[in-house]
Amino acid sequence: MAVVALVCAVLAAVLHIYIFVLESVRWTDERTRRTFGTTAEEAEATREMAFNQGFYNLFLAVVTLVGVGLWTVSDAVGAALVYAGAGSMLAAGLVLLISSPSKAKAAITQLFFPLLAVVTVTIALLV
Fold it and tell me: So which domain of life are we looking at (predicted)?
């Protein structure tokens, strides 16, 4: 079960690295604007906010990946970091789902792998 948990955590991290690229690097590109449903003017006006938000996603991914790496040394330390990173990703996805039901698809995409990671890490620690 630990392998499944770590794969889910890595998938959550990879998705959030992709979100980082969209928000911090490609925010004003046409394809990214279509993905987020923003106009060129809205993207330009929110560029600094998106840049910051993208780094937030990157840092959560890094914490999660460090947890995956440290799992081999200490499953308790690794699990704590995976819980911190993936748990925050999950919480952010839930906030998006609750606050903006029209963005349910994006929220579910954002929280799916972190949810699997949190659940499978818990199971792996219990067995």
Answer: Bacteria
Per-residue pLDDT at 86: 98
Model confidence pLDDT, tens digit, residues 30-42: 999 999 999 999 9
Residue 99 pLDDT grade (very low, low, confident, very high; cuts 50, 70, 90): very high
DSSP the chain: -HHHHHHHHHHHHHHHHHHHIIIIISTTSHHHHHHHT--HHHHHHTHHHHHHHHHHHHHHHHHHHHHHHHTTT-HHHHHHHHHHHHHHHHHHHHHHHHH-GGGHHHHHHHHHHHHHHHHHHHHHHH-
Of 22, 18, 15, give the one whose Cα is nearest residue 115: 15
pLDDT of residue 91: 97
